[in-house]
Amino acid sequence: MRISSMSQQEKVAYMQSEPIPHLICQMAVPTIISMLVTSFYNMADTFFVGQINTQATAAVGVVFYLFCHSDRKKDTGAILLGFATLMFGM
């Protein structure tokens, strides 16, 4: 049975009955893979943007920082990208 299809009580029972190393591996591996994919994407993006000029790389850095520290509203990414385009003239 998949964890996502379990009820809340079944999840609690599963967490209490399974060995801790197994649970850590089961929960950590998808997160690690996701973070690796994101890191590789960001490295490739920075490489190709860096081919333009240093201002473009700075714009990506500023937008990434602001995007990570925003309040996650619907259009935050588009607004920040527009701001970076105006600010750094990409």
Helices, strands, pairings?
Blueprint: H1 8-17, H2 20-50, H3 54-68, H4 76-88
Helix pairs in contact: 3-4
What does this molecule look like?
With 90 residues, the protein is mostly helical. The chain has helices at residues 8-17, 20-50, 54-68, 76-88. Helix 3 runs antiparallel to helix 4. The longest helix is centred in the middle third of the chain and has 31 residues, at 20-50. The termini are far apart.
How would you summarize what this structure contains?
The protein has helices at residues 8-17, 20-50, 54-68, 76-88. The chain is mostly helical.
| Mean pLDDT over the full residue set | 77
Tell me the series of helices and strands, N- to C-terminal. Answer: HHHH
Got a strand count? Answer: 0
Low-confidence stretches: none
Spatial shape: elongated
Strand content: under 5%
Q: Give a quick account of the main beta sheet: strands, pairing sense, barrel closure.
A: none
Q: Nearest-angstrom radius of gyration? A: 20 Å
Structural class: mainly alpha
Helix content: over 70%
* Gap from first CA to last CA: 50 Å
- DSSP helical segment count: 4
